[in-house]
Amino acid sequence: MNPESAIELLRSLITVSLAVVSPIVGVAIVVGILVSILQAVTSIQEQALSFVPKLAAIGILLIITAPWVLRQVMQFTVVCLSRLPEMAK
Prior knowledge:
Blueprint: H1 3-42, H2 47-82, H3 84-87
Helix pairs in contact: 1-2
């Protein structure tokens, strides 16, 4: 495996990873900000109030986006496995 193909493989790995993780992080940030605003307005400082909505939102998002995530990971795996013979050189 030459350095150029290794760098290309690493670049595509990082791209796919960021594409798969970014919706999850985005939902967690949005829900966290909304819960923080709600806590600031109502002066409720309950720890479970910040954890449970994030957990529920991320769980729902994972259920909705699971086919897309699986398709992205499978496409990356197929590309890596198809390039395996040239990597062995």
